Amino acid sequence: MPIQPASRHVVPVALVGAGPGGADLLTIRALRLIESADVVIHDRLVSDDILTLAPAQAHVIAAGKQGFGPATPQDAINALITGHARTGARVVRLKGGDPVLFGRLEEEVAALEAAGIAYEIVPGVSAASAAAAAIGQSLTSRGRNSGIRLLTGHDMQGFADHDWRALARPGEVAALYMAKRAARYVQGRLMMHGAAPDTPVTLVENAARPDERILATTLADWPPALNEAGLTGPALTFLGLAPRAARSRISQTIQELA
Question: Which InterPro entries match (predicted)?
Fold first, then answer.
């Protein structure tokens, strides 16, 4: 349960999931909190359509991170959240997707607890769920896979290490977040541990947004296909899952532009 504030601050900080991008995929609770916020501190994955829902007088602050790129230090983000909260402002910390998945939620919760500030956590539609919907698939299916692994492509030390032997087994399905730059690394580890070269690999860029794009390839062709596609937006990568009915295949788009 969220702690009670030790100071005169009585409005809990809201740690809110913005979903995959479209404002129509916000939860009703998220929408209400954004519309009543005094301060919105958002990451780089939150779309402009969602940010425009904040009141005109609200203080909207970008505090994003990019893998292997520019980033606002977590300590600075924590200070922004607690500093504004101490003034009595209604603070919304807005994160793309679901804040409980690779959102450094625990670090921000720890900062709020240390400051004696109450909080609530509002889940959002995850990138994995949105990407699975985009390719017409279920994350799990009877007779195909009874579980799915949610993994990160990189961590604070660089490319993330995983149980490659387990991931290489036939029928395994995994959703990789922040994995574009780790493609060749992950491919090498999987094939080293016996993964089949024709294992399906699917990337969904900007899932559930108007500019959504889908790249369907195989483990063997993954890095060159990714380079050819030139994906620049945030993308989720599925290992072991192919599209049933892709709405806009990257390969078709490349052929049309050629």
Answer: 4pyrrol_Mease, 4pyrrol_Methylase_sf, 4pyrrole_Mease_sub1, 4pyrrole_Mease_sub2, CobA/CysG_C, Siro_Cobalamin_biosynth, Uropor_MeTrfase_CS
Choose among 34, 110, 38: nearest CA to 74. 110
**For residue 205, which of 190, 219, 216 has the smallest C-alpha distance?**
216
Q: Which helix (H) or strand (E) covers residue 107, if one does?
A: helix 105-115
Q: Provide mean pLDDT across the span 126-151.
A: 92
**Mean pLDDT of all residues in the chain?**
88
**Model confidence pLDDT, tens digit, residues 201-217:** 999 999 999 899 999 99
Window from 99-113, 145-159, 200-214 with minimum mean pLDDT: 145-159
Domains of the chain (ranges, CATH numbers): 13-122 (3.40.1010.10), 127-257 (3.30.950.10)
Between CA 74 and CA 85, with CA 80 as vertex, the angle to 5 degrees is 130
The single-letter code of the amino acid at 26 is L
This prediction has a pTM of 0.85
Q: Give the active site residues.
A: 43, 65
Query: What are the Cα distances from residue 64, in Å, to 43, 89, 135, 250?
Result: 4, 21, 28, 28
Residues with Cβ within 8 Å of residue 2, at least 6 apart in sequence: 12, 118, 119, 120
**Sheet of 174-177, strands arranged across:** 149-152, 174-177, 235-239, 200-205, 213-218
The DSSP symbol for 63 reads -
Alpha-helix residue ranges (DSSP H) falling in 124-204: 127-134, 164-167, 183-192
- Angstrom distances, CA of residue 85 to CA of 39, 61, 97, 104, 116: 9, 14, 23, 19, 10
